[in-house]
Amino acid sequence: MQIAIRHKLSLALGQGIARSVQHVLLTPLTGPTQTVREWSIDMPGIGKAASFIDAFGNRAHLVSQTRPEGELTISVAGIVDTIDRNGVVGRVPGDIPPALYRRPTALTKAAGSITSKFRSTPKTGQDRIALLHGLMARVAEVVGGGEQSQSQDGQSQSQAQAAKPPAADYAHAFIGAARALDIPARYVTGYLYAEGDEPAALHAWAEAWDGGLGWIGFDPLLLLCPTDRHVRVAVGLDAVTTMPVRSIPVVGEPQVLSMSVEAAQ
Amino acid sequence: MSATPFDEMHNADGSIREPYLILEDWLKGQPPQALSYMSADAESLFRRLGITFAVYGSNEGTEKLIPFDIIPRIISALEWRKLSRGIEQRVRALNAFLYDIYHRQEILKAGRVPEKLILNNSAFCPQMMGLDPARGIYSHIIGTDIVRTGPDDFYVLEDNLRTPSGVSYMLENREAMLQLAPELFQRYKVAPVETYPETLRRTMESVAPGGIHGSPNLVVLTPGIHNSAYFEHSFLADQMGAMLCEGQDLFVENGKVYMRTTTGPERVDVIYRRIDDDFLDPLTFRPDSMLGVPGLFDAYRAGNVTLVNAPGTGIADDKAVYVYVPEIIEFYLGEKALLKNVPTYNCTNDDERAYVLEHLGELVVKEVHGSGGYGMLVGPASTKAQREEFKRRILARPDNYIVQPTLALSTCPTFVEKGIAPRHVDLRPYVLVGDDVRITPGGLTRVALKRGSLVVNSSQGGGTKDTWVLED
After folding, report:
1. Of B405, B420, B444, which residue constitutes the final position of a domain?
2. Peptide bond just before B309 cis, omega within 30 deg
3. Helices (H), chain A
4. Most exposed residue of A24, A131, B71, B352, measured as fewest CB within 10 angstroms of its CB?
5. CATH numbers and ranges of domains, chain A
6. CA of B107, closest CA in chain A: separation in Å?
7. pLDDT tens, B116-140?
8. Are residues B113 and B91 in the same domain?
9. Is B282 on the interface with A (CB under 8 A)?
10. What's the predicted TM-score (pTM) here?
11. Sites in chain A below the pLDDT cut of 50
């Protein structure tokens, strides 16, 4: 599938700033599940930015501005060809050792309510894939709130649904649980081509390691393995190491001004 | 405490060991009172130079003078050769280890060091993965802590690969001795330590990023005047002709690091940073850090500046990794370790913990991430209440402590109130790693001034001595 992406976001820096500097992770790389045809980032300072590969294999930009406007606009556009490999990303040359992705972080604490079911489940061969699918379902159940909201009295089901947690919560819960079960797991940011209700933010999901297949994607929010509708942008330990834009200074979260992820014909 | 401690000046039969013969003769020739006068002179000299240090947690005036003992410690050329070969071996192996664990992690795959101990360790810095520092060196400035228990018995206590301090004392102690006892330097051929700042400069220049025209621009990055080692930061910058900067004096633009100067921005190539990893760059590490430079780590990652030492070196001097250093040396160099490790008990092992809790009165307990003698129990000098407290702490968090036997540290003659008496010492030689490994002959000798005390830390009542390595 060929996917065209246009994404515009704004970042409030505050007034009267002498200098600002950003770490930008908004460049998808060609890999087993996708080929990047065209890609561009437009923002003040990008022309002279330092571009490098970060610790997790992502293409990063260090961008800076002197006496910037109080608000920074970043426009991203490109075309990516994707193929459906049932979520299997496999092995990429130069990838860091998977064992590193067993490291717990503050955002990926394991919830006992998720892991307890799987403590004694076999973790090798086909059993491992089955376990990871089971884990994905359990995460969707627990993070989606299906369980707790039953017991709440006046809270209606629709209220719980309206406040559906962001994709990051699902991904972190999955990763935390996988790591607690001694399975390397990493956080993935990316774009999602979704007919109808489009997300107003970058999507996030997880990848877990299997000695045979390599990295396999799991999207616990959508309860499926990533398909050709998913465009991978960055991987890391958690949402902090993969944040699309980190800035100093910064006032508040980056705001999405517009985003379109469409099938390009 | 079992054996009598090794006396570096006297043989067991009371005769004088060879390196100390001239000193003995000189001491005999001093009129009564002369040493007292020299001691007073030394103190006023240090006050004039302004060498003070801050004691954390002390509320009676923050700045103190570290007591200086006027009797030098003397190491023969032969002893030094053995010692420095052992230190060089360790430093080479630990830099190779750092390169490996931030790349392919062969030593973990081979199972020679437990994977979890490294990868889940808070001192391991994931952001360093795959980064290629200039010449493959991570730790350029090292201060290896050594203790001696016999004529040929040297133990490494700690490797100190992050930002070891104290080198300014080594230099000032020599300066003071040259003024106080110039005649002794006529009679002894003492290897110079004064070359350290120049060697530091050459070391930093040798790891500058590629593509620089002319000589690289070097700076020392300090957390500021409230840091306990601020004197040393400014002293070293001054001695090697580098600028002393705080985070706010530097900025990152277009991926490169610049220093604000009165004549406009000046590009910076190599930074000797005395700021801890967490505070180095709020864009990559702690976002609330006011001490660092936003974007500095990315500029480093992009190959536009060198950080001395690299972030993440702490994983190689972690107290829990320490026990594996002999293994690390064998793995990378294919050699046996020349210097000994202090035997260390692992409190997460049931048998070892049981032994430790039974024998706390004879052992030394250290916090895995502690330093400077804080959070430490020295069994023989402890009270029952302290031992009970540590017992409780070890049981609560066995992985947070390492435990070692109390070593009979060697003693050196020291000038105390009642004249000259033996006091326990340790030694921190300083190592620089760039285009070569260079160890300054000597180092900082710390001395426990209290009779019988084994705690040499300046924050706990220790003093220092000039350390002489004799030339052949």
Report:
1. B405
2. yes
3. 112-115, 126-143, 148-151, 157-162, 167-180
4. B352
5. 2-263 (2.60.40.2250)
6. 12
7. 999 999 999 999 999 999 999 999 9
8. yes
9. yes
10. 0.93
11. 148-161
